[in-house]
Design brief:
4 copies of one chain form a homotetramer.
Chain A (H helix, E strand, L loop, with lengths): L3 E6 L4 H11 L4 E7 L8 H4 L18 H6 L4 E4 L5 H11 L3 E4 L9 H8 L13 E2 L2 H10 L2 E3 L3 H15 L9 E6 L14 H4 L4 E2 L8 H12 L6 E6 L6 E8 L4 H12 L5 E6 L14 E8 L4 E8 L3 H15 L12
Parallel strand pairs in A: 1-2, 1-3, 3-4, 4-6, 5-6, 7-9, 11-12
Antiparallel strand pairs in A: 7-10, 8-9, 10-13, 12-13
Chain lengths: 345, 345, 345, 345
């Protein structure tokens, strides 16, 4: 298997670290450039001692210099950068002929106005919004295969969209009644020296945050609306939980069909999806079964007393919710089997 | 202050341990009997080294022998026993003239049929159901003062009822749209040698459980229905989270009034409640602020996009959700100020 | 009981927070001033929502202005400041007639040269070193009673000194063979926005740090040398462990007497000490029994195969290891019973 | 690469689970039999939902029936059984021609008398003790290659032996002064429904245990004595720490050479060892860098003030401390490169 040369921009945050982990172990990828302003000049293994002595971990981080990235021979670039910064580099890399997998929010929305509404800034590269493919492989797999710019979805959206989309397509739930409660591990907040993210502040603590209008609602509702064929607005309540990794989402909505149709819609949609594990009715997905993997586990249940359907999903926020999903898109873009480099548990 | 002599039955579980902690430190209570089948003959401080050298901690546990409990001089008995067992002892203790604060589910429901429906057993003492007072002091304070049998509510119900009751009374939300998602610390599952509760199984894990019809729904809906003046059925999704103590509940419902009315209803209901802290709109209660206390923190928010009201509450499952609340009822029953023995943080 | 007016300087770190907690609940203390550069103008209950609605928690933080501290009427000042800063304020407060309990390292050493050697700076107020009393109440209780300046010991030293001092005084162990391994909860590292202290970095992590010459060795060896009557040098290895609170220390040394003498030395030294709980031989102290208290639990064991004595101790780094111990000194200085305000578990 | 057929006996504990994980992902092994009394009849993926949908995870557990194990075609058997039980099955499997990698303590000691002394039972198969090879690949690699019975070392011994052996061989430390303090994650205590291992009991807790004569001392001292060429007796203090996985060991001893010799002894011994990462002087190994891997990270430091050498090591108790090490021996026994199936981080 000949390796594709890849670059990782913004490689020293938690998502960047997970990309490094997956791509160091990927049999058909070779990291030729990894950028990090704060760690430029230091080797990957110095910054991440966990990866020490792995082939490729001696590569030094460089400044985010696009000339150097291109010179490294990389043909695919992963961007694990803050929103705003990602758009700027993506533009330049696309011009230079690289394919780009962006893990920021910059290209996930089709409408620049929605971006401005939710992110409070004018979109830095609105022309690219029509080029970008929303990188949810189970939904947009074909478009991803041909894409030059993939906007890889965030962790909350993935955990909410995958259970809901098949049901909205079939009209099996009432979209006006959707309420999603998500629990996130602390790595989802990023690797920033914020006092609220200190061990002592997060340990033995549970709390909601980011209410009532989390930024990720914009992409969630965009994709749900497409699936439903009409505008969908939902309530979304994220919570911060003292685990390192994981998203556990519970979504409720009024059931408008029967449970058998729900099961059929989910099973037929995902029967060929390597990473969606349908646990069936009655099972409660546990994040400990998906951490450090690219799996998302999904269960469902009918609350007959109220008529609601309960949808339960668990994924790793850094895996299927970020880096794993991006590598899954990379596999599709380069014609590799889905599980390549993503098969370990 | 003369001390009331109290007994604790089933004192070696987590709720029992918290009762022991609170009552050892209570300036107007003296533990004269503590029962535990598995620890009979051992001193409190042997079983709970944390309490070693505190006055009263040398008391030995005894078998659950009601004669001995009465002989100890106790006039109030706290029951921290499994449902079923509690009813049996309560009957005997009431006959002997003690007042009983039962922390099990045995006397929380007014209808024996509902008990049978949710607990799968014929109620062991249906005659007492009309005698018992549901021990939520903020709602039934006057009845508690005079009660001979208090059925102290569970941890989930308390966290759901206190935010909702004032709003249902005023008709400010649509009861048919209530969805409650609760996150519980592991002590809520009790001190039993269940492999699913091992450290390694719970740590780095998040999952829903007990779906779709948790037993506590019965008492939650009973009290909500009273407040609403009509039958209320809700969706309730509990989750198990790797913290020792705490309940974090997020409840959503369609708002049928305005936010000012919500605030007014909450503030006027709880203005004299020592243990309800209203954080106001925009604040997200964090369990770390209430662990090992009897406080419940409540916040709220209007999701204008969907018309839903978000109600957020945090309490300690063993505190306001169990032992603290029981001691609060004890204070009311014995004419003490609310905060007696419950003022430390 | 008339309350002594007290000031807390540097009240918004973890030690400061614990001081606030203890002194808000202290029946013979009233906080009249609390300083915090970063939180000046905000009320205590805003910064620490946990303390909300407690009497006294409405007090606003002020800038560290010594005039204002004096004007508040405080007669005792607790200093929870970085070393260096503490010395400066202490000097000023002592001049103005306040008694000072300093929780920093500034006045713990009797020799300015040792300070310079271990802290890398010239001592800022060497004249006060002879005035200061090392605030270990079980060892220097009488001097503390009369002291104007108490240098309250750190968390590691307390856990190492209390088991060792009685044995060194009696010549029961060989001081040249002392090795102390300590495990500390993360709050011991302070409330600073250091990436190494983020939840994700500390959770599921265990590591030694600060080798081979931790600053606290200076005060440990000073006090051990006094007890032994000769110069003592030890090996000390601190480790960072993912718990919020607690120090667990295991100290080994060659036994030079018999185990009965060890037990006698410990029991006779601490028979009147409210906060030292001697668990006896064979018991292993667990930090969970001492967190949020002022207790230190001590066990010991003879490793007959090697001739070593094992000394095991557990305390709360913020309690007996910092704020609790400071309040214990305050009680002694103001003639109160030891346990005043420190009796809750 | 043709796969070797392997059996796992006792596959449903934590070590068994890790063996299943590693061998399901091993490119040159195929699990043909997995035994578990409590789970016989259930598929691997039912018992371990984490492994669901991986090739091979549909295999059902069987009762520990050696005929069935042989019939499965397995030529190598991994035994993750309690001591005592392991010996019995090992004897039978060896007779039937399988090679056995035993992860219990049954064959780690060369002397049956030592076994009886430390384990309190007559050795069940003393004749095999001379056949067995102590499965520490960095020390006994050649013997492992040819072995029919490998006694794979425990987690504590591995973390203590690898840093010490090169130094004892060269006489660089005084063996009489060795003190090892180890911190273990809770999975090291096994997957048993012991109340002391409940989440609530272990979380926010740190404590020593198993003093003063942990069973693993027998194998530690056996191997240290061999390295030193004389009888070595050490002090060993294990502690239980609230992490799932990991061993962090700090060993101290009086240095009898210079630091350069220490570094040379370590580097020359491990220069070709894939899984020993020498971090050098001044570095403190962190368990988070080795969890779920087969690496052991080693650092060292000279405490010049006392003349002691500090040796620091970190490994995963289930990885290099158990299942990973066993698979490493398997690779050696079957002529595979060291890293086969062990290369992921």
């Amino acid at each position: 298997m000949e390796a594709t040369k890849v670059a990782i921009l913004g490689a020293s945050g938690y998502t960047g670290m997970e990309l490094v982990r997956l791509l160091l172990g990927h049999p058909a990828a070779q990291i030729t450039a990894a950028t990090s302003r704060s760690n430029a000049g230091r080797r990957i293994e110095e910054v991440f001692p966990r990866f020490s002595q792995l082939p490729g971990s001696q590569l030094p981080f460089i400044e985010p210099d696009m000339e150097a990235v291109v010179a490294s021979g990389a043909t695919v670039a992963f961007l694990a950068l803050p929103h705003g910064a990602a758009a700027q580099y993506a533009t330049e890399l696309l011009e230079k002929g690289l394919r780009v997998i962006d893990l920021s929010a910059d290209f996930r929305l089709r409408e620049a106005a929605t971006y401005e509404d939710f992110y409070g800034e004018t979109h830095p590269a609105p022309d690219l919004l029509t080029t970008a493919v929303y990188g949810l492989p189970e939904v947009h797999g074909e478009a991803i295969a041909a894409a030059r710019l993939v906007a890889s979805p965030g962790c909350y959206p993935t955990s909410i969209l995958l259970p809901l989309i098949p049901l909205l397509r079939e009209g099996l739930i009432d979209p006006a009644t959707i309420v999603a409660n998500s629990l996130s591990g602390v790595s989802g907040a990023g690797r920033k020296a914020d006092p609220a993210l200190l061990f002592v502040e997060c340990n033995e603590s549970m709390r909601a945050y980011g209410l009532p209008r989390h930024r990720h609602l914009s992409e969630i509702e965009q994709e749900l609306s497409t699936a439903a064929g009409k505008s969908v607005t939902i309530t979304f309540v994220p919570h911060l939980i003292p685990v390192n990794n994981g998203i556990c989402t519970t979504t409720t909505a009024m059931l408008e069909g029967d449970l058998a149709s729900v099961e059929h819609a989910l099973r037929s949609t995902y029967e060929n999806s390597s990473f969606v594990r349908l646990l069936g009715t009655g099972a409660c997905p546990d994040t400990k079964n998906v951490t450090h993997t690219n799996f998302i586990d999904i269960g469902w249940q009918h609350d007959e007393r109220t008529g609601r359907l309960l949808l339960l999903s668990a994924e790793d926020n850094l895996g299927k919710g970020a880096a794993g999903q991006a590598v899954q898109s990379f596999n599709i873009m380069t014609g590799l089997p889905d599980m390549t480099g993503l098969g370990t548990v």
